[in-house]
Amino acid sequence: MKAETTWQGVPAHLKEDIVTSLDYKSRFRLGSCSKSDRALIDTSPVFLHGIEVYIASGKNQETSNVLKIKDGGNSIEIANNIIVHCLHIFKQKRSFAKNVAIVIHYSDTEDTTLMKEMTETTKSCGGNFKIRAKRLYLKTTGISDQHVFQVFQLFDSNLLESIEFGHKISDELLSRITKTESWKKAKEICFNKAQQLQVDDFLHVNKLRFFPLLITPEDTWKLIIAFTTRKTLLRHFGFRLNFLNDWNPSHFPPEFKASSIKTYTSATGSVYIFPTQVTHFMFVVRFSRRRCEGYTCEEGYEISAFRSISLNPYPMSEFLNSFHVKKTFRYPNFPPYRPTVAVRYPQLIPEPHIVPPPPIILNYFEYGPFPIVPLNLTYPTNDVLDDTPTVTSNVGPDDSLYIVPDKNQ
Amino acid sequence: MSCEEPTTSPTPENNITVVSSDGKEFLLDLKLTEQSETLARLISNFEYDRTDVKKDPVPLGNITSAQMQKIIEWLQHHRYYPKWEQNDIHYSTSFTFETWVEEYLNIPNNEMFELLNAANYLNIPRLFSTICRIMASRITGKSAEQIRTVLNIKTDVKNDVYTGIPIQEDSSSSEDGMSEISLSPSPPPI
């Protein structure tokens, strides 16, 4: 008689599919059941929605480290041995995390304990160790450029699509980073701090946000062309530049005006629409004081479609918000950016409210018991009496550009 | 030998015969076999979809008649479902199943493992994935000791494999080992 099939009789490659369906905590519980289950867990890949590493250390201060792991509907916080724990997730070559955020604050720049631990752990994980993630948010203070670069290099360039820096990085480090494969293959790049950057380093990305200290109209035009001449284009946020030098669209090369097909202008800014290489798509460039933005929109777009692109250009911000980092780490400006900018078509100015003239008060005894309305001698100053000339509806400031102030600012 | 017929009486032109390990024959509509990559490939290789080709019975030595009966029930239920598309990466696991599936897989673990083997052998991805998720749902949220009970695992360790703490009966050693891990509350709405 054939023996009953048990858990321990199921082939490991089949059990692996069950294990990958488990949440992170249940994996550990199953792993502690037996040696074979421990081996199964150690060799099964982990697929996570997000990992957040927060390391804070300073002179004469206790180290405050937290590793947050998000899978399915739960978030797990781990406080001890987080570097080893985090890196061991990727020891299995097929493990993958959609979002990885690394925040390191070291006030003691001479303390290299962290990096030593990281180096030793990566060595123990085997050669060519890589963190396989789609999006990276990196913010460090107090560690050297070499170590930041070392952390950056840990990520698998073949999978990394989005890079976001939360801190200002040195020109030397930036020049090293821009030469990496991860940078060249990245589809989204974001800098949250102002710094001088070369626009040529960004022409390959699909989404870009940075704060150049100075940027010329020629470089901005180069960026616009990079979007409008692409053969593959998706409807999404393109770029946003906030710069410090003062110039306006009249400084663009003549090709800028020649190739834009429609323009709205107002006192606060202007909107230009460019044709693209992709059917039914157009590129919208909004220019306001010291800010230039570009979006890929569908033809005949409406404000709702535009706003849906504009409001959340970076999914990483949404991911960080979901971890309520601000509350946990008491970081006043973290996540750093939550744009609330929208544009709308010019709208007709509503016609002014016309106040009816006061009734004529006549002799009560002559007209009977009609209500007597007191004479109002102070008319509303902004209202118009019907004996004034009619105001045409298209007179007034063009409000095609409408900017809602950012709540975080 | 008995011959089991599916509810929709297939004609000889549009069906094949499969033979289970215990010698029972089953008539299978070619439409149903599309869900099994193993059978679909076999039919394609031997051109059993052509009416002028003689169709020999297909022996399925790894599958018993009871399992085959169960699998045919699954194939018939999902006859008109769209083709299963497996995602490469599962970030989160859904343990929500339709009522029919819950009733269909309301079977003991040993039968579940056998069905898992059969689904893997016949390469029926929708069934295989569903069994994996059902099994995961039976493990999720349980302590190590409870998992041992559910899966009938005979532990071969005296101490917890992670912490080294001796395993005691009716205690969750893995929970002790993860004392530094705590489930955080759900994020507040932004």
From TrEMBL, chain A:
PANTHER family assigned: DUF38 DOMAIN-CONTAINING PROTEIN (PTHR23015:SF24), UNCHARACTERIZED C.ELEGANS PROTEIN (PTHR23015)
InterPro entries associated with the record: DUF38/FTH_CAE_spp, F-box_dom, FB224
Domain F-box: 10-47
Pfam families: F-box, FTH
Transmembrane residue ranges: none
Protein name: F-box domain-containing protein
Residue ranges of every copy of the DUF38 domain listed in the record: 115-239
Automatic annotation (TrEMBL), chain B:
Region ranges (Disordered): 166-190
Domain SKP1 component POZ: 15-79
Signal peptide: none
SMART domains: Skp1
Presence of the UniProt keyword Zinc in the record: no
Biological process according to GO: ubiquitin-dependent protein catabolic process
Keyword Transferase: no
Keyword entries, A-Z: Ubl conjugation pathway
Residue ranges, compositional bias (Low complexity): 169-184
Domain SKP1 component dimerisation: 126-157
Pfam families: Skp1, Skp1_POZ
Lineage top rank: taxon: Eukaryota
Protein family (similarity comment): Belongs to the SKP1 family.
Name under which the protein is recorded: Skp1-related protein
Organism: Caenorhabditis remanei (Caenorhabditis vulgaris)
